[in-house]
Amino acid sequence: MLQRAREYDCFRRGIYPNRAIEGPATPAGTPYSVYPPYALPMFALFFEPGGWLQGRIVVQGLSLAALVVMGRFGWSTMRRHGGGAAWAAVGGVAAGAIGGNCSALARGQFSIICVGLIVAQIVLLERGRVAAAGLCWSLAMLKPQIALPFALLFLVGRQWRGLLVGAAVLGCLSLFSCWWTDVSPLTVARHWLFDMPLQFTESANSVGPATISKWLGISPRSGQALALGTLVLALVAIAVLAAIGRDRAASWLARRQPDDAGPAAAGDMLPVAAICGLLGELFMYHFHYDNVMLFPAVLGMLAMASAAPSWHTIGAASVLGSTVWLPQSVFDAWPALALLRAAVWAVSCAVLVVIVTRRHPWAAA
């Protein structure tokens, strides 16, 4: 949080908070921000006008509010899909029980806030409020490694306008940052596309691009570029498959809605959102305080288990939940468990892709 406050202070004074972008005339003490240009004006929501202390209070307050929103969403989702009081209670605490939340609050990370905005995006898309959903997604892009995969929700739902709104917001904020700091947009784009080393991702404590890069002996930048390309291809493939199978499968949760729930009943987007979270966790670099992005995946598996309870559905939901509910220290102490956790995420993602793209026995519940 202190680092973000220093970056915003530079930006407020018209200095782009990145020494590589500002060039040789960079004032002494200028930080090296790893945040994208559109994030810098967003920092004003936290630090203006009171600075670091205000930012810490605002971030923690909004994070707690986001956990309440996610808890309400989890509770109502489980109730809506046939779960009793016990299922609803589990859905209500599923987000708050994620192990990385304490670190996010202690460090002043934006992870919980971003996932709260993603939940708002899901609800708004289900209600047909596409532009508002696009705005929520653009604000969640404060941490693109969390929000970027959830752009798939606009594609699968054929609600392109929301994605255009979100992209326009991010583009305008980026141009404003360049204008305010008198830095060429081409300079910023070149830095992000070709020059940014991404060495900081090597300390990520989840099995992802940085870990794979170490195994392959390539640079973190090359590993993340390869993973990002794979992620984009996977998102496009899932969007195409879901569109092809839309008439056959529709939504496995929508069939459990009451007749008056409307054409976009709550829950329609949940399986796709679960896939987005899992793909993002696997193909983008993350620290354990970002694990809250798997809340839609855990909730989707819980909803599936409550809709079609059996040993394998309840077991799958329990295993996936344990990967984020157990303390990170457990996975740090046993590296093999970290590999197993990644395998669980990959298998869960594959199962959900099958559910979304074709009629599966679980989807008929």
Count of helices?
21
Oligomeric nature of the chains: single chain
| Helix-strand topology string | HHHHHHHHHHHHHHHHHHHHH
**Net shape:** globular
Radius of gyration: 20 Å
Per DSSP E runs of 2 or more residues, the count of β-strands stands at 0
Descriptive labels:
mainly alpha; globular; 365 residues
How are the elements arranged and paired?
Elements: H1 2-12, H2 19-22, H3 39-42, H4 44-47, H5 52-80, H6 85-93, H7 101-107, H8 111-126, H9 130-140, H10 144-147, H11 152-156, H12 160-181, H13 185-195, H14 209-216, H15 220-244, H16 246-249, H17 270-283, H18 295-307, H19 311-325, H20 328-333, H21 335-357
Give your account of this protein's structure.
The protein is mainly α. It has one domain (2-48, 55-364). Helix content is 67%, strand content 0%. The chain contains 21 helices and no strands. The chain has helices at 2-12, 19-22, 39-42, 44-47, 52-80, 85-93, 101-107, 111-126, 130-140, 144-147, 152-156, 160-181, 185-195, 209-216, 220-244, 246-249, 270-283, 295-307, 311-325, 328-333, 335-357. Mean pLDDT is 83; it is low at 247-267 and 360-365.
